[in-house]
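User: Could you go from structure to sequence for me? I need the amino acid at each position, not a summary. Structure tokens:
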């Protein structure tokens, strides 16, 4: 291990308590999207800016994506630069984390502490957003803080990006930044997205599946359940459609790719909504949402075309004219779509560097692979910029009693620093 890396690792250990306190402070702020009826990330972004205001970053920029639903009408995105040994001409390493979190869910399942009342216990920090993505956000901060404390300029400029809206599609986060400020990004950049991984930090994600979420809305005619012939039960139509669509997609798009875990495409019916509020009502409307994670070899347009063709078949099967209107109607609305870009080359510089850092710091050999989840990495890959997803995680994201392991946070900070130094 190099002398500088040893010094930085030792300094990060000294910052352990400060790292814990910073994560505790950030967890207290419920930075949840307006999509879920909350105010967004503004308060958390301000707290983060307050934490780093006296740190000797070379440049801190705030890019506010307009969103009238959010507090003060904006979704903040923060970029903090710590220049490398060649100043602005240094090669750049981006470390991207997100400041938004998902809603807490069923509060009765939070048995250790309340979601936004962080608790430090048994080497863990409990609270919503602790692991996703607070652990890595704080790790990236203190990787740089250690360099600053020691007066070390790394080989590569570190760009810390703290962005909004990752949990609901990145329309106001990295997607907005790339669309509105393309000048920020360079082809030669290296990118780490510490928002996925495994328990021992040996998995490097270089590929993602395509993602499409779509909502199927079936309209029939509400009627009293004792007289079904006078209406058209939207539940029955929707259940028929969802069953056959689920079967069709699994059978037609069934190939496997060992790069990914799971190795096949997934098609999951998730959210369901129907307006009937009584057992004796046959409802006139039913909605079901599908979450599809598709191997890159398949086209999302083909899947959508299959879904639409099946809708026509089902409509014909239940076709009925009521009050001059032909029913049922079946609408398909795309909620989110991300077509998978080409994978990051397993021999690219960022992958090689990360493997080397893990060997030096942990004496472990990492493996590369693909995942079904969507991350910021896909946005960079679309620009031809190599990006990897890596962190040491217990995979507590989106769960009740979510926690971050303090050792993981501290040790990952050392790896992040190494990526800038090696």
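Assistant: Here is the amino acid at each position, in order:
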């Amino acid at each position: 291990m190099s002398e500088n890396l040893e010094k930085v690792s030792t300094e990060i250990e000294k910052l352990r308590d400060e790292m814990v306190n910073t994560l505790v402070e950030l967890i207290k702020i419920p930075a949840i999207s307006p999509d879920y009826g909350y105010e967004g990330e503004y308060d958390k972004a301000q707290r983060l800016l307050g934490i780093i205001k006296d740190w000797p970053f070379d440049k801190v920029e705030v890019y506010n994506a307009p969103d009238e639903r959010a507090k003060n009408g904006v979704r903040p995105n923060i970029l903090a630069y710590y220049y490398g040994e060649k100043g602005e001409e240094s090669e750049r390493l981006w470390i991207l984390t997100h400041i938004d979190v998902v809603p807490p869910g069923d509060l009765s399942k939070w048995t250790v502490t309340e979601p936004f009342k962080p608790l430090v216990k048994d080497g863990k920090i409990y609270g919503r957003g602790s692991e996703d993505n607070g652990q890595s956000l704080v790790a990236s901060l203190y990787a740089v803080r250690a360099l600053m404390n020691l007066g070390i300029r790394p080989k590569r400029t570190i760009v810390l990006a703290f962005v909004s809206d990752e949990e609901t599609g990145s329309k106001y986060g990295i997607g907005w930044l790339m669309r509105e400020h393309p000048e920020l990004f360079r082809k030669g950049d290296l990118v780490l997205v510490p928002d996925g991984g495994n328990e021992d930090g040996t998995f490097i994600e270089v590929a993602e599946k395509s993602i499409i979420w779509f909502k199927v809305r079936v309209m029939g005619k509400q009627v009293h359940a004792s007289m079904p012939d006078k209406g058209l039960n939207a539940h029955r139509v929707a259940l028929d459609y969802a069953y056959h669509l689920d079967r069709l997609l699994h059978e037609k798009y069934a190939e496997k790719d060992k790069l990914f875990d799971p190795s096949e495409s997934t098609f999951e019916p998730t959210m369901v909504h129907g307006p009937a509020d009584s057992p004796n009502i046959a409802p006139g409307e039913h909605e079901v949402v599908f979450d599809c994670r598709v191997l890159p070899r398949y086209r999302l347009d083909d899947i959508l075309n299959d879904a639409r063709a099946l809708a026509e078949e089902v409509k014909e099967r239940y076709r009925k004219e009521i009050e001059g209107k032909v029913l049922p109607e079946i609408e398909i609305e795309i909620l989110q779509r991300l077509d998978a870009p080409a994978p990051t080359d397993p021999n690219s510089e960022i992958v090689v560097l990360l493997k080397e850092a893990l060997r030096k710091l942990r004496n472990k050999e990492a493996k590369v692979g693909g995942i079904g989840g969507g991350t910021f990495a896909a946005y960079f890959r679309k620009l031809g910029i190599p990006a990897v997803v890596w962190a040491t995680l217990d995979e507590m994201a989106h769960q009740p009693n979510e926690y971050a392991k303090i050792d993981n946070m501290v040790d990952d900070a050392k790896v992040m620093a190494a990526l800038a130094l090696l």
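One structural detail worth keeping in mind: The first strand starts at residue 59 and ends at 66.
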